[in-house]
Amino acid sequence: MIHLFFNALAASAGAGLTYVRNIIPEISVRKDARATIALAPDLRREFANPTNVTFIELAASGTASRFWREQRVLPKIIRQVAADVLISTGNFALRKSPVPQILLSGNSLYTSADFYRDLRVRHNYGEWFDTRIKAIFARRSVHWANITVSPSQSFADVLSDWTGHEITSIYHGFNKEAFFQDTTPLPPDVQWKINSANGTLKLLFVSHYNYYRNFETLLRAVPLIRERLSGRKVRLFLTCKFKSGQNPGSYRTEAASALVRKLGIEEEVVELGAIPYRRLHYVYRAADIYVTPAYAETFAHPLVEAMASGLPIVASDIAVHREICGGSALFFDRFSPVVLGEQVLKIVSSQNLAQELKNFGGVRSADFSWREHIDKIVGIAQALCAQRN
Questions:
Q1: Long-range contacts formed by 247-250: CB under 8 A, 24+ apart
Q2: CA 180 – CA 308 distance, rounded (Å)
Q3: In 10 A of CB 36, how many CB atoms?
């Protein structure tokens, strides 16, 4: 039985949390692998004591301090637990890993010209500089690791061009049964907001607030959609709030909040706030269309969740979205609220088109499996051990 050591100290929001929450159940039922997982104490409390999995709790505040602590502390721990292979899940590898290392690289911001341009426009030069520094270490990490894995072929191609290294693509997964199984109701205030939108066109975007998800383009599309709905109302559900301190990271929400007021769409924009992952299915199934204007992505789990929930999708036209969605989405130029609105209205005006997108999404969502993801990761780890021996 191979012993995998997962460094999940960077899992604090979004895809990182989704990854950890889904791989643990898969590893716990395997006969050919066991795992030691290093993670933050708050995340450890989500799990009981699964079979085949041992947890090591380490406080990890801030990227820089976490990175240097990992470089100094983790090699010793990996030797102590006698792990066979290290899997670094947070874009940064150990410079001198005591065992073969698989790097999971899934942050498109380091390579995104749009993101750097966005930060300059917002005069957020501190974030610009911070991202540039992190990008240096992320790029070096590809050289330090034995194998680097990307969650999509589109991003693998970008990484390969950026680093000059061959990158392996392995899709992240989706567990439909687990995603829909929790019957715990939504908080009453959230359920009330959803119920109050009955009879309206309900759009949904699942994301905490950040710049690269391009909220402003989506907000600008709302009044355009409203004007052409012939009296029918529209509501945009967001799983975040435009309030400082209520979203992960240091992204400032004041500009987005001011834009809502300027456009006069306070009634149309419904800020649900963060929804527990296991209860997200209620929100998807309450919506009519899933929309995403993101200009940078590496996989986009909500797209798979939306497809599995039977939602047609309107997505920004970037390579990752086309790869993941295929025929389940209509696409628009990532900075065009006009075309975004037109694509939404196409779906609204054609039941046949909406049903066609839903049907394709149902089939496409079945292509993503956490079990297959772990199968491939374990296969790579076994091959690295064989080479070492």
A1: 247/208, 247/209, 247/210, 248/12, 248/13, 248/14, 248/208, 249/13, 249/208, 249/210, 250/127
A2: 10
A3: 20
168 and 47 in a common domain = yes
Q: What is the pLDDT of residue 14?
A: 67
Q: Which of 277, 268, 290, 273 shows the shortest CA–CA distance to 188?
A: 273
8 A C-beta contact, residue 39 and residue 20: yes
Instruction: Give pLDDT, residue 165.
Output: 96
Q: Name 6's bridge partners.
A: 37, 87
d(CA 87, CA 101): 6
- Domain of residue 77, CATH code: 3.40.50.2000
Closest CA to 336 of 293, 298, 297, 303: 293
State the average pLDDT over residues 234-263. 90
Asked if 325 and 238 sit in the same domain, the reply is: yes
Task: State the pLDDT confidence band at 145, using cuts at 50, 70 and 90.
Answer: very high
- Mean pLDDT score, 244-265: 89
With tokens 């034995």, the residue in question is 146
Average pLDDT score, the chain:
93
For the segment 157-186, what is each residue's pLDDT rounded down to a tens digit? 999 999 999 999 999 999 999 999 999 999
